[in-house]
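Supplementary Note 2. Why include the ligand at all?

Several targets in our set were suspected to adopt different conformations when bound, so apo predictions alone were not considered sufficient. For every target with a known small-molecule partner we therefore ran a joint prediction. The input for nicotinamide-adenine-dinucleotide is given below.
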Amino acid sequence: KNAQGQYTVTLIEGDGIGVEISQAVKDIYSAAKIPITWEPVDVTPTLINGRTTLPQEAVDSVNKNKVALKGPLATPVGKGHQSMNLTLRRTFNLFANVRPCKSIVGYATPYEDVDTVLIRENTEGEYSGIEHTIVPGVVQSIKLITRPASERVIRYAFEHAKNINRPHVVVVHKASIQKLSDGLFVEVANEVAKEYPGIKVSFELLDNTCLKLTADPADYKDVVMVMPNLYGDILSDLSSGLIGGLGLTPSGNMGDTVSIFEAVHGSAPDIAGKGLANPTALLLSSCMMLRHMHLNADADKIENAVLKTIASGAENRTGDLHGSASTSHFASEVIKNL
Ligand code: NAD
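The joint prediction is reproduced in token form.
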């Protein structure tokens, strides 16, 4: 925070629709007079000694500001540099990915009472990137689970449950099959749970959670779910589908000192550059960011205007929500509703 009461936040606009949805955020923040000064950085990767590396200015900016808002970054499939999302999470040790998913009043979906909170381990598991060919036609991919990474994300889940007053942590796993790796995750969860006698802990197999979540999401209203990396990736998209899709769901990548807030969705190459993208997910991610910075009134102001706009009718909603509005029309309606 500077002498004028402004906070500087690093902005990574991202690829594809990232530019369009970031513009919407900037326009709305400036109209709402939110005390944020954006510091835009370029994260185009460079390869140093065969490792994907972030530009130093970007690293310095995030380390200085401690908080960043990020649009989606495209990852080439099967070749080229490593995922920049992974590089960012590793560089800043963003060990917990918090993904809330709440029904939007005024946008009807088969269930009206979805209110899930999912915490995904963000640094290892199936994303350890250790893969090799043993002989042609046989590849091996290593899922890495460690006690320290499991412990810190599980402890984060219990702390988060305490902070948001949810009495129950559900540990989602597949230890019936991945006996050692998920077995360790479950073992650590049992240990950490003992430190939180006021919070109930239970254990669920991933397939069972998918069934229960789609059969009756209201069962998860008082729950914080925590799980290894890939399960969280998949289950959070499933939760997004329940409330109307990827255009709506925010997330926070939390570390000990730095946090990066981003939409759950990707760069949407199919609609990029056409003015069709829904900026809601990035806007709601920015609201998570404002609350993390204790700027709760500013977060409420933005969130209420966004929700009011979505509820105001199909002419003000983007195509993913069966509406006809462009990104910029949606943003100007949000500004009117501030
Ligand atoms: P995607 O999320 O980009 O798109 C999936 C579908 O959802 C598409 O039909 C898209 O048009 C739609 N969609 C997504 N966001 C939307 C929005 N805001 N408004 C309206 N419609 C929206 O997933 P994908 O196509 O599998 O991935 C595209 C690229 O994004 C890949 O390179 C992938 O690696 C990357 N990606 C990045 C992140 C990230 O930066 N955190 C996350 C996921 C995927």
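The two ends are 24 Å apart (CA to CA). The longest strand covers residues 125-135. Comparable summaries for the other entries are listed in the accompanying table.
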